[in-house]
Write a structure and sequence with these properties.
- Its EC number is 6.1.1.21.
- Belongs to the class-II aminoacyl-tRNA synthetase family.
- It is a single chain.
- The protein has 419 residues and is α+β, with helices and mostly antiparallel strands.
- It contains 16 helices and 16 strands.
- The strands form 3 sheets. The protein has an 8-stranded mixed β-sheet, with helices on both faces. It has a 5-stranded mixed β-sheet with strand order 13-12-14-15-16, with helices on both faces. A 3-stranded antiparallel β-sheet has the order 2-4-3.
- A hairpin with a 5-residue loop joins strand 15 and strand 16.
- Helix 1 packs antiparallel against helix 5, helix 1 packs across helix 12 and helix 5 runs parallel beside helix 10.
- The protein is elongated, with a radius of gyration of 27 Å.
- It binds histidyl-adenosine monophosphate (HAM).
- The site of histidyl-adenosine monophosphate has 26 residues, from strand 6, strand 10, strand 11 and helix 12.
């Protein structure tokens, strides 16, 4: 124990669980790398205004959940609560949009939200994300949904569903917004919700309270207000998903917690996670570039939660088949043996074999215990007598079989055994 513990709402990633976490991150990004997305990395903090303007002043993320700070020089910064605004900012700043469009980027990293911690909801969490900037094409929306679907499937996940909706565009959304406000103003709601009607009425549809939901039964729906352009676009996205055999559910009430969305919005939910069931989400954000002072750049993207994907695997009882971290474990008995064996371990590692060594002058019994604990398939044991005879004992830890191997051939032979 130390005097300190990890801050509330955070947790440490340590072996052996950390290996699963890394593998999940890798699996979520692999399909993107096969689909022309290039890696992007942006700072962990940005100017606070980027998020208040991009994600929206009225969202919970900006109004309640941002970690903000003022530097000694008086600059207002925020730890990034999400990746889209940052990645778009970076692409605009580097003029990537002046090249071929769409610009397709993927990213992976830590994000921070001052949320009420609970199972699956943390203040520090990890996402793998993808953004396709500068093209209005239903195939791009479909591509992203298919890639996320295939990523989850590649991990062996089965119990997830895709919820799909369209939030309209700058033509039809304002008309719908006004109709919804009209309806909501006539309901019996508390003061905070009344305020929300004026700033962000769509979010009221997302209110989980039963008393509110009951009153929303006859609320006007975006679908009935979509303009012809949005309707046709959405139908094409749905058609492409069906064609790719990606099952989805139309969720007319799906409203995401960020203000930048237009048209396609979607969420991946997992049925084994309780209330924090969204393992990923995203959508189109055709107006965000202009909100950030950039040119018109219709775009679409998603972010998948790595932490929640790990929980989803656990909920489905899936243990990923991970490569061994150690193939060979070296056990020296005596000082001279140490030097010889250490040399062999270094040579094996240089040949690409995962090898570890019994450090700290352990006795045979303890060292063999460490060898077994390491998960290695082979142990190389070198005692004084072996040394005098110019051999090393190579023991198969699974079968117990032990063979003497000449010292000068041990690296080649062990490498061949490991395969
Ligand atoms: P988001 O829905 O806020 O979207 O987050 C995406 C995913 O991150 C969620 O589905 C969830 O799995 C994970 N996540 C979010 N908050 C937490 C938390 N407190 N603890 C654990 N996991 C969490 C976005 O962030 C958008 N930037 C996605 C996007 C990209 N839209 C367009 N492009």
């Amino acid at each position: 124990m130390s005097t300190f513990s990890a801050p509330k709402g955070t947790y440490d990633l340590l072996p052996p669980d950390s290996a699963q976490f890394l593998a999940v991150r890798e699996a979520l990004s692999a399909p993107l790398q096969r689909a022309g997305y290039g890696y992007a990395e942006t700072p962990g903090f940005e100017h606070t205004k980027l998020f208040s303007r991009g994600v929206g002043e009225s969202t919970d993320i900006v109004s309640k959940e941002m970690y903000t700070l003022t530097t000694k020089g008086g600059t207002e910064l925020a730890l990034r609560p999400e990746g889209t605004a940052s990645v778009l900012r970076a692409a605009l700043e580097a003029n990537l949009h002046r090249g071929g469009l769409p610009v397709k980027l993927w990213y992976s990293g830590s994000y921070y939200r001052y949320e009420r911690p609970q199972a699956g909801r943390y203040r520090h969490f990890s996402q793998v994300g993808a953004e396709a900037l500068g093209a209005e094409d239903p195939a791009l929306d479909a591509e992203l949904i298919i890639l996320a679907h295939d990523a989850y499937r590649s991990l062996g996940l089965r119990n997830f569903r895709i919820l799909l909706n369209s939030l309209g565009d700058k033509e039809c959304r304002p008309v719908y917004r006004a109709a919804l406000q009209d309806y909501l103003r006539r309901l019996d709601l508390d003061d905070e919700t009344r305020r929300r009607i004026e700033i962000n009425p769509l979010r009221v549809l997302d209110d989980k309270r039963e008393g509110v939901q009951r009153q929303l039964a006859d609320a006007p729906m975006m679908r009935d207000h979509l303009c012809e352009g949005c309707k046709a676009y959405h139908e094409q996205v749905r058609e492409l998903l069906r064609d790719a055999e990606v099952a989805f559910e139309d969720d007319l009430r799906l409203v995401r917690g960020l203000d930048y969305y237009t048209r396609t919005t979607f969420e991946f939910v997992h049925d084994g996670l309780g209330s924090q069931s969204a393992v990923g989400g995203g959508g189109r954000y055709d107006g965000l570039s202009q909100m950030l002072g950039g040119p018109e750049l219709p775009s679409v993207g998603w972010a998948l939660g790595v932490d929640r994907t790990v929980l989803a695997l656990r909920a489905e009882g899936i243990a990923l088949d991970l490569p061994r971290t150690t193939e060979v474990y070296a056990v020296p008995l005596g000082d001279q043996a140490r030097q010889v064996l250490f040399r062999a371990v270094t040579a094996l590692r240089r040949e690409g074999v995962a090898a570890d060594f019994a450090y700290g002058g352990k006795g045979l019994k303890n060292a063999m215990k460490s060898a077994n604990r390491s998960g290695a398939r082979f142990a190389m044991v070198l005692g004084e007598r072996d040394l005098a005879e110019g051999i090393i004992q190579v023991k198969n830890l699974e079968s117990g079989e032990q063979l003497p191997v000449p010292l000068d051939r041990v690296v080649a032979e062990v490498r061949a055994k490991v395969g």
